[in-house]
């Protein structure tokens, strides 16, 4: 099975001014593509050759895991962004956020802090456990919550290549910009599946 990048539901310039076209050209077009290319080479003639991306993330180790998880993580990230996004979720997701974080603002603060305080490179995740409880977790490098039995519903990439061309080393500015792009309809759908 060949793993390809998902087609973005927006043009490369449509997330401006929050994420520039140049950043997407590198982040999606080069970094993400390189992970997919590497994964496809690495799984050839292995037990993972015909595995789904989710199974690769859950079961592989080493280079296959690192590249497979990065394909999954980046696709998950890019597909939950949209031009003129942001705002707040609605319905059951908002109810759950209020239940587990008191308010949307306190959730947003906690999620932002998770991204800002992650040492080095990695991901901040909003996840659901088997009992429907929402949590925020940090994962370094290619880490993915599927390996811990969680269902991810939202992620924020805090590798420097996600923001360096736009905000240089100012990760907090990138995080502030991120909230203007979240596609809550996608996150809601993931939550309800």
Automatic annotation (TrEMBL):
It catalyses: 2 superoxide + 2 H(+) = H2O2 + O2. Residues 2-81 form the Manganese/iron superoxide dismutase N-terminal domain. SUPFAM superfamilies: Fe,Mn superoxide dismutase (SOD), C-terminal domain (SSF54719), Fe,Mn superoxide dismutase (SOD), N-terminal domain (SSF46609). One of its GO terms (cellular component) is cytoplasm. Pfam families: Sod_Fe_C, Sod_Fe_N. It is an enzyme of class 1 (oxidoreductase). Residues 89-190 form the Manganese/iron superoxide dismutase C-terminal domain. Mn(2+) binds at residues 27, 74, 157, 161. One of its GO terms (molecular function) is metal ion binding. Its EC number is 1.15.1.1. Keywords: Iron, Metal-binding, Oxidoreductase. Gene3D superfamilies: Fe,Mn superoxide dismutase (SOD) domain, Iron/manganese superoxide dismutase, C-terminal domain. PANTHER family: SUPEROXIDE DISMUTASE, SUPEROXIDE DISMUTASE [FE] 2, CHLOROPLASTIC. Destroys radicals which are normally produced within the cells and which are toxic to biological systems. Belongs to the iron/manganese superoxide dismutase family. This is Superoxide dismutase. It comes from Ancylomarina longa.
């Amino acid at each position: 099975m060949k793993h390809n990048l998902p087609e973005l539901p927006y043009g490369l310039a449509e997330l401006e001014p929050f994420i520039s076209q140049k950043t997407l050209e590198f982040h999606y077009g080069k970094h993400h593509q390189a992970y997919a290319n590497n994964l496809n080479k690495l799984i050839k003639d292995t037990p993972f050759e015909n595995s789904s991306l989710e199974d690769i993330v859950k079961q592989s180790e080493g280079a296959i895991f690192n590249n497979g998880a990065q394909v999954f993580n980046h696709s998950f990230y890019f597909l939950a962004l949209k031009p003129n996004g942001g705002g707040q979720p609605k319905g059951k997701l908002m109810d759950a956020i209020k239940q587990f974080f008191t308010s949307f603002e306190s959730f947003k603060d906690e999620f932002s802090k998770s991204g800002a305080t992650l040492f080095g490179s990695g991901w901040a995740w909003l996840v659901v456990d088997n009992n429907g409880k929402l949590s925020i977790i940090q994962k370094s490098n290619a880490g993915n919550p599927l390996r811990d039995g969680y269902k991810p519903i939202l992620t924020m990439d805090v590798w420097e290549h996600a923001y360096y061309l736009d905000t240089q080393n100012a990760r907090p500015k990138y995080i502030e910009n991120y909230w203007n792009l979240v596609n809550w309809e996608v996150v809601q759908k993931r939550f309800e599946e």
